[in-house]
């Protein structure tokens, strides 16, 4: 099939190129506009308690003041606020109110209750139309509050800053744009330089980047259509990950094809024949690799978190489009560009290198597969044990933005001047339900007192808000710790138990607020670990079985990749929790590690195991097959793994904790997948198992016919 595809693309190369240009422009021009959500509660299903509490609040307390922004006042000299400062604060608040900023509904002046006990900080609460949360106008309102408030505070002794949800949305928007730009530039530079050095050419270094533009544009358009069609949520981290996935995976597939293309040129094929034969030989590996990655991403649809149900299809579409481009657009372009121009100014691209690096590595694996398996497997096990110290954290705001962003500075100041949980209290709703009648107000005081006795609760606001129909009471509970901290989430767990058990007969208690949302995200993640991981593993196992025609090999390949996942988590835990000072790794990190390491790690295993099977079918014994597989496929795995690891490492340049953790974890995971699992562990285990690895197929039987797995990799020795 892939031979026919290769010949078809070569014969109609210009038509293929034109089709890609038209499709990309059309999808970009007509794609609907997307906006990313920074409200974690939007990513949870409606049956979770925090979401039920939010719905109840909307229904029973529609006019309840819900601050979207916090105006923080303090003196520039750090002293206590004076009467003059308080008068200046009132002028600033009045000035902002008189401006009638779009979407701003109310600006509440600072009061004794919103002033810190030491008198150094004062808060003003701002209500912004929450129906516009997912629009640019929402963050624009925060920007207007920030800019105009600073102007109004000029000439006073006040330091004025804006925090809260709307300000975080604004800072996140600006931070995401910077992250995307940094990621794009750094990844492009890495790919151009590394691919250019590998093939000793200038144009060939730029080709994977130029070729990635079309799938990037086309995939973005398709993602926008799918997101709108199925009403999916868009995560602010999706765009940066999509960039690296398309550039990184696209470069991998480009290398798979380019090594085969150069090999066929060296064997004497003309340019078009070399391209067609290259597609015929490497097409199955690219399709299988893309299939494994796509499946790993697509199963995120089973997640209970909207963040992942949106991210999964987006990345799956990106991989599918990238694979299609690698099998059609890339060979079409190679078919129309003269080979000398592709590799210019290099002059030795037609010469077989004489280096012995991978020859020595292959000999080591072939001679002592048992020792190699123990050493490489032992390294993975040791790193895996370090993962036992894993601790998750849910503070998305602090992790996704640099600490010097204004909304983050305000958050830190609030935790210093007030109770850490004061800026984002928890709400406990006691209700008789629909048609349940009015509450017995005599029981409310006792219920509130029991809430105040829960460990981790700083206090319960005196008095309760009662809904107009008298069916629901709202208890405002202040926690001792910041809403996104693990301590606050633990406190909410106890608070829920206490509220549920203390609810009078005929009533129901539900707990809402940020800490409650994070508690439910934790529960949803536990669900995903039990469902998404196994389903993804089984589907990838099926793909491996179909591609290798074996029952045995896929199992130890998946076992090695599973070890790679655990080792990656362990290495990241050591780096950030043991050596670093972070309180925990971001809660979604394990699922990202699993998906990327399992899927892309399988890519390299597919490439090496295909070569192992080829060598076995050529009649070599298991140890000789392992030696030749490392010798010939090693350069491709090393080049692809190094580039992809370096691409993921560019995340660490983004300037925030989340991307630092993602970048490190995915980079180290790819390094382990390419340079430990694929290069040593997989061929060593296959050599030890011998013909049993291919049972019940005939992978180890000699086959010299046209359907043999393919020609040799381009590098018979160690140099790239």
Automatic annotation (TrEMBL):
Subcellular location: Cell membrane
Name by which UniProt lists this protein: RND superfamily putative drug exporter
Database matches in InterPro entries: MMPL_dom (IPR004869), Mycobact_MmpL (IPR050545), SSD (IPR000731)
Membrane topology: Multi-pass membrane protein
Entry's family note: Belongs to the resistance-nodulation-cell division (RND) (TC 2.A.6) family. MmpL subfamily.
Record domain SSD: where: 204-336, 562-688
Coiled-coil ranges (or none): none
Origin species: Kitasatospora cineracea
Domain of life assignment: Bacteria
RNA-binding is among the record's keywords: no
Main location: membrane
TM stretches of this protein: 12-31, 181-199, 206-225, 237-261, 282-302, 314-337, 370-390, 531-548, 555-579, 591-612, 633-658, 664-689
Pfam families named among the record's database cross-references: MMPL
Keywords of the record: Cell membrane, Membrane, Transmembrane, Transmembrane helix
Keyword field contains Transmembrane helix: yes
């Amino acid at each position: 099939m892939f031979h026919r595809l290769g010949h078809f693309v070569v014969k109609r190369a210009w038509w293929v190129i034109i089709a890609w240009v038209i499709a990309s422009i059309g999808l970009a021009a007509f794609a609907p506009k997307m906006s990313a959500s920074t409200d974690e509660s939007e990513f949870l299903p409606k049956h979770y308690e925090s979401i039920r509490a939010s719905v109840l609040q909307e229904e029973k307390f529609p006019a309840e003041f819900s601050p979207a922004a916090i105006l923080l006042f303090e003196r520039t000299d750090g002293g206590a606020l004076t009467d003059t400062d308080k008068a200046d604060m009132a002028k600033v608040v009045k000035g902002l109110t008189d401006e009638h900023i779009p979407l701003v509904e109310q600006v509440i002046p600072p009061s004794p209750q919103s002033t810190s006990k030491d008198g150094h900080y004062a808060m003003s609460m701002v209500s912004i139309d929450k129906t516009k949360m997912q629009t640019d106008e929402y963050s624009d309102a925060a920007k207007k509050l920030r800019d105009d408030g600073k102007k109004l505070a000029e000439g006073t002794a006040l330091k004025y800053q804006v925090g809260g949800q709307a300000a975080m949305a604004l800072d996140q928007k600006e931070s995401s744009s910077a992250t995307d730009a940094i990621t794009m530039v750094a990844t492009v530079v890495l790919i151009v330089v590394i691919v250019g050095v590998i093939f000793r050419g200038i144009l060939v270094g730029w080709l994977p980047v130029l070729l990635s533009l079309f799938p990037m544009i086309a995939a973005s358009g398709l993602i926008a259509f799918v997101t709108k069609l199925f009403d999916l949520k868009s995560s602010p981290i999706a765009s940066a990950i999509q960039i690296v996935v398309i550039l990184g995976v696209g470069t991998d597939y480009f290398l798979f094809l380019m090594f085969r293309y150069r090999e066929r040129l060296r064997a004497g094929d003309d340019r078009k024949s070399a391209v067609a034969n290259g597609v015929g030989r490497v097409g199955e590996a690219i399709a299988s690799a893309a299939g494994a990655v796509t499946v790993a991403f697509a199963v995120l649809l089973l997640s209970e978190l909207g963040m992942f149900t949106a991210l999964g299809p987006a990345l799956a579409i990106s991989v599918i489009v990238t694979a299609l481009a690698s099998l059609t657009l890339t060979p079409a372009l190679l078919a129309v560009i003269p080979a000398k121009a592709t590799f210019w100014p290099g002059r030795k691209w037609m010469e077989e290198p004489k280096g012995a690096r991978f020859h020595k590595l292959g000999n080591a694996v072939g001679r002592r597969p048992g020792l190699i398996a123990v050493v490489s497997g032992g390294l993975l096990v040791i790193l895996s044990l370090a993962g036992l110290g894993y601790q998750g954290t849910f503070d998305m705001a602090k992790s996704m933005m640099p600490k010097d962003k204004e909304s983050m500075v305000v958050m830190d100041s609030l935790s210093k001047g007030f109770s850490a949980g004061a800026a984002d209290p928890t709400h406990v709703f006691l209700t008789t339900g629909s048609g349940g009648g009015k509450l017995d107000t005599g029981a409310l005081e006792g219920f509130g007192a029991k809430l105040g006795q829960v460990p981790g609760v700083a206090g319960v606001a005196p008095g309760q808000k009662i809904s107009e129909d008298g069916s629901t009471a709202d208890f405002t509970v202040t926690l001792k710790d910041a809403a996104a901290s693990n301590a606050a989430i633990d406190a909410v767990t106890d608070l829920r138990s206490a509220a549920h058990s203390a609810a009078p007969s005929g009533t129901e208690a539900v707990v809402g607020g940020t800490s409650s949302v994070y508690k439910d995200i934790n529960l949803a993640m536990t669900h995903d670990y039990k469902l998404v991981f196994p389903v993804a593993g089984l589907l990838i196992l099926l793909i491996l079985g179909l591609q290798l025609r074996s029952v045995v090999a896929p199992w130890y390949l998946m076992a090695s990749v599973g070890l790679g996942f655990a080792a990656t988590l362990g290495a990241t835990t050591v780096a950030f929790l043991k050596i670093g000072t972070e309180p925990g790794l971001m809660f979604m990190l394990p699922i990202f590690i699993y998906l990327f390491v399992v899927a892309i790690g399988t890519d390299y295993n597919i490439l090496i195991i295909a070569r192992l099977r080829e060598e076995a079918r050529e009649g070599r014994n298991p140890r000789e097959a392992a030696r030749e597989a490392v010798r010939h496929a090693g350069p491709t795995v090393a080049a692809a793994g190094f580039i992809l690891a370096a691409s993921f490492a560019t995340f660490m340049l983004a300037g925030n904790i989340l991307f630092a953790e993602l970048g490190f974890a995915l980079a180290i995971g790819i390094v382990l997948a390419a340079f430990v699992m694929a290069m040593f562990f997989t061929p060593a285990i296959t050599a030890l198992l011998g013909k049993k690895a291919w049972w019940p197929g005939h992978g180890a039987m000699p086959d010299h016919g046209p359907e043999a797995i393919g020609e040799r990799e381009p590098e018979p020795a160690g140099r790239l």
